[in-house]
């Protein structure tokens, strides 16, 4: 580690913290996590030069930081030890996740053009024979305020790429996420972003190639803009799943997803709430999905409230003020849009405009259940089924 003092000797603690540091790898067989943690604590800017690959073999707890710039020009590579990390990742109770790296605090910048390599292949293969294996999320922003992550690439996350947990004013700009398995075992659960208990989040101008949700809005996510994404191979831009846990009230409000290219995906724009016995409750309000261009997407537009269980055990999650606007492209199944609601007015003010979806192998079907649709595409759906 190299410290470059910018200011003369006799510094206050704050000025010492203004140091600029550069760290390079300790060498074969050595864990670089401790020196990276030390540098981030001591220095305001930490540069990892482009020629450097840091070997991260123990968890990175970077919580409670303030005014830090991590200039990643090189590579942060997590050691592919499945046995080690499955026992030593930091745990989060929400959906039983673990993570390699927690980053939190105020006024943080992560950029530099470098790569965060999650060494996912070992995990894709291990998970195929042990589906109970806990796999680490690559980066968790935890209690993070005024944070920017930009001009960074991520490769092969074992699990979700980014978990924004307790974030406020967080922006991701110009990041590339790619999870590709080289074996027959898929890169499963590699969500691009999962946002939870967070407010004011922007994800823009980014390219994602993965094996699960491109972006997912989990409970208590408000005021999010997702713009200019190109998602390939994913499960789409999803609200939910909400209302999963009995006794817990989930809120997702004020979300706009705009200018999205979605290719080879399972879903395009999706809202997913739990129905069935013993579920929780919540509200999904003021969500706009607009300017989506979809190519070969199985379900370009959908709600998924487990329609079989809906009539018996309606979802307790209300869905209000939803706008699907200018969604164009092709579906790989004949039902290109499926808006299925639980009975008793669980869904209200649902607007569909300028939808233009086709099914190349036949007639495109637009279906709905227990919902009154407004907008210039409502007639495509005909009369919705009621149960
Ligand atoms: C990374 O560090 C771990 C722990 O010291 C070591 O076992 C492993 O061989 C190192 N990996 C590389 C590529 O040097
Ligand atoms: C991370 O470090 C902080 C400060 O030392 C500590 O309070 C916190 O418990 C640690 N987090 C985890 C998950 O270990
Ligand atoms: C949000 O974070 C950015 C980047 O850190 C900062 O420039 C901006 O002032 C913050 N906005 C608010 C309202 O604090
Ligand atoms: C986006 O990030 C990459 C590095 O991942 C960089 O090479 C490129 O210049 C950035 N683009 C913009 C517009 O900043
Ligand atoms: C997009 O996803 C498809 C299907 O998963 C895959 O075959 C293809 O290689 C991906 N394309 C890119 C550019 O990553
Ligand atoms: C979400 O916010 C509501 C209202 O503040 C609260 O009751 C609920 O417990 C929160 N949900 C979670 C998962 O924290
Ligand atoms: C709906 O959410 C968007 C942000 O996605 C926000 O700009 C707009 O003001 C919200 N509308 C209402 C009526 O709250
Ligand atoms: C949604 O946006 C509106 C309009 O900006 C704002 O009044 C409201 O407080 C926001 N809701 C939440 C939960 O932040
Ligand atoms: C639908 O498309 C037309 C023509 O592009 C445009 O004038 C109109 O504003 C659009 N409607 C909505 C609700 O976006
Ligand atoms: C959707 O938006 C595109 C790009 O703005 C525009 O060219 C197209 O006419 C719109 N389609 C509809 C159906 O409004």
UniProtKB/TrEMBL annotation:
One Gene Ontology term from the biological process aspect of the record: cell wall organization
Similarity annotation: Belongs to the glycosyl hydrolase 28 family.
Signal peptide from the UniProt entry: 1-19
Gene Ontology CC terms: extracellular region
EC number of the protein: 3.2.1.67
Main location: secreted
Location within or outside the cell: Secreted
Keyword vocabulary terms for this entry: Carbohydrate metabolism, Cell wall biogenesis/degradation, Disulfide bond, Glycoprotein, Glycosidase, Hydrolase, Kinase, Polysaccharide degradation, Secreted, Signal, Transferase
The keyword Secreted belongs to this UniProt entry's keyword annotation: yes
Enzyme class: hydrolase
Protein name per Swiss-Prot or TrEMBL: galacturonan 1,4-alpha-galacturonidase
GO molecular function, one term: galacturan 1,4-alpha-galacturonidase activity
